[in-house]
Design a protein that fits this description.
The protein has 238 residues and is of the alpha/beta class. Strands 3-2-1-4-5-7-6 form a seven-stranded mixed β-sheet, sandwiched between helices. β2, α3 and β3 form a beta-alpha-beta unit. α6 packs across α8. The longest helix is centred in the middle third of the chain and has 23 residues.
Length: 238
């Protein structure tokens, strides 16, 4: 699975906890591996996830707070948390809380916005306004804006050398670096992630030093911290 570096063979038949699934973009990928997937989100996005992925018999969906989960601790083989912890009130507490549900020897992959890199971005100019909007009003605006802004972002990103920096000038999520060939998928992912940029109440990027300290506090093993564009991707073993 891209990002986590887990293979289908590793996941098949194992238990996976997906933290903060949103509308279920990664839920579908996890379910298709044959893993037993437990996925939760605090928001009503779980209903959209159910509509999209309810066909999978190996999926259990729950609406719950990340700080109050109805699962036994140390009960999952794998833990995935993408695009979530920077949007919680206490990022360190969130990271340490979700690790309680991973069994000893289990593998995790968590990402978080990288401090400094995430700050000089035009979305920061929009967020004081958009985070006060209801999701019902903001989402249609994002749906209309993305088809107009994404082609510009893609064109800028193609400039030799400076493309990734120029693309950041356009306040829209651009996944062109992933090599997605399906234009509809590219637009859908852009809509979801642009909405994710603009809607959350909290946005708290973290420094590499902080992330390293969390992993030491929990005595996590085989830890790698990779900077991918504006994110830190943290992988390892409990």
């Amino acid at each position: 699975m891209t990002g986590s570096r887990w293979s289908v063979d590793e996941l098949r038949g194992r238990s996976v906890l997906e933290c903060g699934s949103g509308a279920g973009r990664f839920t579908e990928v996890l379910c298709e591996t044959g893993a037993t997937v437990t996925s939760f989100d605090i928001s009503s996005a779980v209903h959209a996830n159910a509509a999209s992925n309810g066909r999978f018999p190996n999926l259990r969906l729950v609406q719950a707070s990340i700080y109050d989960l109805p699962f036994p601790e140390e009960s999952f083989d794998f833990l995935l948390c993408f695009g979530v912890i920077q949007h919680t009130p206490d990022v360190e507490r969130t990271f340490k809380t979700i690790m309680r549900y991973l069994r000893p020897g289990g593998r995790f992959c968590v990402d978080v916005y990288a401090a400094i890199v995430a700050y000089p971005h035009p979305r920061q100019l929009l967020r004081p306004f958009t985070r006060r909007m209801s999701p019902a009003k903001l989402y249609p605006l994002v749906e209309r804006a993305v088809p107009r802004l994404l082609p510009l972002s893609m064109a800028l990103s193609a400039a030799p050398g400076v493309g990734p920096y120029l693309a950041r000038l356009v306040p829209v999520a651009n996944h062109g670096h992933l090599g997605l060939r399906n234009g509809e998928t590219l637009r859908n992912w852009s809509v979801l992630d642009t909405f994710d940029w603009l809607s959350p109440r909290y946005e708290k990027p973290q420094s590499r030093r902080s992330v390293e300290r969390w992993t030491r506090d929990l005595a996590l093993r085989e830890v790698s911290i990779e900077r991918r564009r504006g994110m830190y991707v943290i992988r390892g073993v409990k």
